Amino acid sequence: MDPIYIDYLNRLDVEAIALDDGEILAAIESSLAAQGRGETVIEPRVHLQPGVSEGHFNVLRGAMAGQVDAAGVKVVGDFVGNYRLGLPSELAILMLFDPATGVPRAMLDASGITDMRTGAVTAIGAKHLARRGSRILAHIGARGTAYWNVRLLSRLFDFDEIRVHSRRPESRDAFAARLERDLGRPIIVTGDWESCVRDANIVVEASRLSAPAPLLRTEWIKPGALVIPYGTMSAVELSLTDVMSKIVVDDWGQCRTGQFGALRAHVEAGRLSDANLHAELGQIVAGLRSGRESEAETNLFWHRGLSLSDIALGHAMLEKGRRLGIGQRLRFA
């Protein structure tokens, strides 16, 4: 047997590769279109709860063909108390394999990938489901994915206001300071959910709750807005789906099953089902289903995270890393 080598990118490598906003959005939009055309395989995520702390692991699995020819598995921890130890709440590893032989191809630090691809899916969802002239963005939560939500949404929309809120003042202040530095514009920090959300055209709910709690009130949602909730624990009221013109998800297979998710209670109560689900985002990106069709629509996009996004972004990083001579080659067999 010939030697088998795998490509390895650690966190420093990922930072040095420095995919720009356009590269990130292009990789994710292409993967969503492939999913919409049925050119991918995706399995619902599974969870591992060690039982020794307030946290769990998510295991995401999928495969793509065509421009990105790879199968992948990502394992990402979701440990909400890690800030007390000076650690990110989400740390992840992505493994890529040859889908024809099972031969390992690469291993990447996927913590940054998780943040980038989540922000890209949020932004692409808004591209297709929000009003084109959206002027006010409200963002709840300041975790790692939050930065990329706001950064990539700002690339696609000319906001007059960007408001942010999170539970801990030190967290929301640091988040706003980073955004102001990188985006070159003022960020409004709010002390409560309502002042952040009211009258916003796009509302992103990325809170970090330890248990479900209806902190985002349906009455605060402006008609014509887009709401994007994706917290592990639900922070929305059951009535939220009642005011929506279109409900879109990233993958119905993993949204309708499982233990966690922002609209888990809505699925279990029958408020979100095959009957009133408008589409998966990939179907809209591929041109098979409609996105926003009028200014009057009030829409909702729920995404739980796609292994396909991780695979696509990991592939893009490897390709750019090879061009730049960044990364390591490890002997596997």
From TrEMBL:
Pfam families: OCD_Mu_crystall (PF02423). GO terms for cellular component: cytoplasm. SUPFAM superfamilies: NAD(P)-binding Rossmann-fold domains. This is Ornithine cyclodeaminase. It comes from Sphingomonas sanxanigenens DSM 19645 = NX02. The lineage of its organism: Bacteria, Pseudomonadati, Pseudomonadota, Alphaproteobacteria, Sphingomonadales.
